[in-house]
Amino acid sequence: MTTQRIAVIGAGAIGGFYGIQLAKAGHAVQFLLRSDFSVAREHGLRLESARLGDHHVDPQHIFAAVEAMQPCDWVLVSAKTTSNPCLAPLINRVAAQGARVLLLQNGLAVEDELRPLLRDDLHLLGGLCMVIVHRVAAARIEHSAGGRLSVGYHSGPPGHSAGSELAACATLFDGTAIDLVPMVDLAQARWQKLLVNIPFSGLSVLLDSGTRKLLDLPETCTLLRELMEEVAAGAAVCGQTLPPDSVEVAWASTDRPDYYPSMYLDFHARRPLELHAMYAAPLREVARAGGQMPKVEMLYQTLRFIDERNQQMAASAA
Asked: Which of 35, 86, 153, 171 gets the most CB atoms within 10 Å of its CB?
């Protein structure tokens, strides 16, 4: 195995989890932290997993600024999409010539919006994370289940094929516990993940509930299903006709132990919600194509209201 130098920008639960898996496989991984930096710099970064085992990252691999980091062959970006306007300068600074940038974020069109801000020599890939992992304390991550990573190629300099870049990504994750699945159509895959993200993320916040209670109550269970079907119809309007069993597969994936989506956790920590990428962007694309998603629109507008109020309360408490 050829050791790769990797930067993880936004080493929270998702970035920390995947970065640590790569570090365990022998790669040189540098973690960029913000809010947890002081704790991580003193005690390191810790991942706890009953299935994959615990792992501790030494403080020497923890950084607060990209200027202190070495140029990297790969840049894993897992910061919240609310930070995207500020991410490009960090990526451009830490990425070596011809490096690959893997965007581990939810939502739609995140690669399209970031691409114009990146250097022309960089490759951009998108990754969809099928994992239940959360930050239980400062610089401490707990993994509950999953870990599969679906990756698609977005764009890059001339002379490189999507197939070769996806093969390089698969090689990167060789020797890890991660099941990496190459994707031919990144946009379609993002719509497929929105089938679950849009209903469960929003309703968990609005109803202050974990996923199990949402599924157990017949009325909310029905609403979840209707939202899924509306998202699938919206994808079709945009020319992304999903496989016929997509809703059934997405629905089956929700049969898991109770969990709280990251949007729920962000709301209760009074962090801004990822409403643009998760709701506004899909609604915009459907409207451009001449369609509507009325239930998703209502969910989005309600979330905007309570997110703004939540941010005002956070500012008052600061």
From this structure: 153
- pLDDT tens for each residue of 221-233: 999 999 999 999 9
Which domain range does residue 196 map to?
188-317
24 counts as catalytic? no
> Which residue ranges of the chain lie beneath pLDDT 50?
none
Is 249 in a helix, a strand, or coil? helix
291 in the same domain as 206: yes
3-class DSSP state of 151: strand
What domain count does the chain have? 2
**Same domain, yes or no: 41 and 122:** yes
Q: Which of 24, 193, 213, 295 is catalytic?
A: 193
Tens of pLDDT along 178-203? 999 999 899 999 999 999 999 999 99
DSSP string across 36-101: THHHHHHH-EEEEETTT--EEE-GGGEES-GGGSPPEEEEEE-S-GGGHHHHHHHHHHHEEEEEEE
Rounded Cα distance between 44 and 56, Å, is 7
The torsion angles phi and psi of 45, rounded to 5 degrees, stand at -115, 130
In order of 139, 149, 194, 218, 313, the CA distances from 45 in angstroms are 5, 22, 30, 41, 30
Q: Evaluate if pTM is beyond 0.85.
A: yes
Any bridge partners for residue 5, and if so which? 28
